[in-house]
Amino acid sequence: MHKHHRALGLATAPTGSLTVADIAKQRPVQPVTLLRPHAATRAARFFVEKFPGMSLYAVKANPSPELLRVLWDAGVTHYDVASLGEVRLVAETLPDATLCFMHPVKASEAIAEAYHEHGVRTFSLDTLEELDKIVTATAADDGTAATDLNLLVRLRVSSDHARLSLAAKFGAEPNEVKALLMAARQASDALGICFHVGSQAMSPAAYAEAMGRVRDAIVEAAVTVDIVDVGGGFPSSYPGMEPPPLEAYFEVIHRAFEALPISYSAELWCEPGRALCAEYASVLVRVEKRRGDELYINDGAYGALFDAAHIGWRYPVRLIREPDSDTRPMGFSFYGPTCDDLDRMAGPFELPGDIVAGDYIEIGMLGAYGCAMRTGFNGFGVEDRVIVADEPMTSLYTAIEEPKRSNVVKL
Predict the structure, then answer these.
(1) Alpha-carbon torsion 85, 89, 95, 99, what sign?
(2) Options 3.30.70.1060, 3.40.630.30, 3.20.20.10, 3.40.190.10; which CATH number does 103-270 get?
(3) What is the pTM of this model?
């Protein structure tokens, strides 16, 4: 059992039998990351069974080795890695996994190690210069070019339907795509096209529009395409961001894929990150001070709440305390524990109006990016980690009973 369980006085509790209330009763001093492997398993099985193709986990969303093993056990066999560090991590954690290096701009040394030492055969690119880099770095010592490469050309597509744009940094422009696809076809065993519609895509139309770009590119270049990768962007549920069912996204993608001018043996891929891990973790924090509608808590912008601070992301919250509260909810903002004014989460976060210092708050849906962004700035990077049996505060994969939607949980 994890060493931090002992710090909370929970060493004798069976793994997964604890609840959020059990943890709060221990009055933890540090933030506690509450892990829900059962939620990640459910999300992974959903994609494995219902997406009409193959699902790659985007490791950047949460690179926890424990989570990687949970996803593997649930049937996820392919992993979208974006750096040499992620290549090494997944190769060490899951030796039998298939790794796909999907960052369009890579160091030559990273490409060479990934190919020659870790068996990576799939690479993305969005320029002729990157293609030349891949071909050179994967060649044999005698200069013989590799013949087993899967090369995916990344198109620039709109992020208009997403809450976080990924349209500015990567992707070949329309006037570059034809030459790039033709050159990549010559250098690859399997040629693919990929794109990313942006993070937290709120409409399936994002994928329909992007697949229209794919179709245009294939027709113009007149090449045989073996892989179509629709990337990530699949949403999770947050306050004010309740997306359509994921099945609606899958249906739109499948219909567009079937209409493409590609061979019957072509493969359809996707790269969910947030959708597989958002429900995996939440954070239990303590209120250290209240000032009007501002709460000073012991985690923040340099911890798990980076997105809440820097891009105004709102997360589900609930008060964990005894006695119960029947006070009308009100909107609060949070300050994190560091000395930095930027350590502020504007919210608003809806909580009972009688909340005071010493109360505990669970902040949900932090399995994606929250766990990955934590730093040790100002000496506040310490956290405990415990597996809990509670359902996530919100879910796209199961109906959460109405009592569990309350923003107050009794101890």
Answers:
(1) negative
(2) 3.20.20.10
(3) 0.90
